[in-house]
Amino acid sequence: MIRMTAIAALAIAAFGLAGCATAPVVDPRPGYAPEPLEPVLAFREDVAGDLVIRVQSNGCTTKDSFDVVITGSAAGGWSFDMVLTRLHADRCRAFLPQGVALTWTKDELGLPPSAEVVLINPVENTAPPRRPLPAYR
Residue 23 contacts by C-beta under 8 Å, 6 or more apart in sequence? Predict the structure, then answer.
């Protein structure tokens, strides 16, 4: 009941602020397009409460490859949104069809241990690519 009331209050506030909205900022560089969110292969919370995110990698992807943005507050409930943005492309050449698993602790992200985290990035539900069969003569 409290969550529905909070959602209704946010919707009313959003409609109230819609009249104050300004035009979006346009980047003057030709061909500019905002970066899409990094698709992830899997997202889970392990038994210790750490967030484990499996992302695509060519061998050089680490936690430092991403900017992590957490939105929400304890006043709005214990649910927080998490967005991963890749800072630089992984230009290595390793074959890692399963990607790599990166782990962030809630303490590292400034979250309380009981926080519920929702990943905003899209989760790909594709099977890893299969290796081609060898050619027989």
Answer: none
